[in-house]
Design a protein that fits this description.
Helices cover 0% and strands 49% of the residues. With 125 residues, the chain is mostly beta strands.
């Protein structure tokens, strides 16, 4: 049973920064590709970023490129999302997700098997 718990969300002014954390337990963290997704009220969940199990490859949604950075510390069983230059349109519940994949790194939520409970990020204008 793999469990993921997000933290670090909150209220921030436009242009500010937040760092989200996702702590994993109940599995071998280092074998999982990890992703971040977000969902605003009334909208579908959308992909934000993902990182390969060994940290060797990362992908980002166009909307966050140059502003967000995904990283992981396998020794701490934790994946991070550093969010800079935040915009009101970044307001959403942010979810951490994990999947086993030998080769591909996925942006599709249907490819991920394990999900956290989400953490709220609100960016004021």
């Amino acid at each position: 049973q793999v469990q993921l718990v997000e933290s670090g969300g909150g209220l921030v002014q436009a242009g500010g920064s937040l760092r989200l954390s996702c702590a994993a337990s109940g599995g071998t963290f280092s074998i999982y590709d990890m992703g971040w997704f977000r969902q605003a009220p009334g909208k579908e969940r959308e992909f934000v970023s993902a990182i390969k199990w060994n940290g060797g490859n990362t992908i980002y949604a166009d909307s966050v490129k140059g502003r967000f950075t995904i990283s992981r510390d396998n020794a701490k069983n934790t994946v991070y999302l550093q969010m800079n230059s935040l915009k009101p349109e970044d307001t959403a519940v942010y979810y951490c997700a994990g999947t086993r994949s030998f080769f591909n790194l996925y942006a599709q939520e249907g490819k991920y098997n394990y999900w956290g409970q989400g953490t709220q990020v609100t960016v004021s204008s």
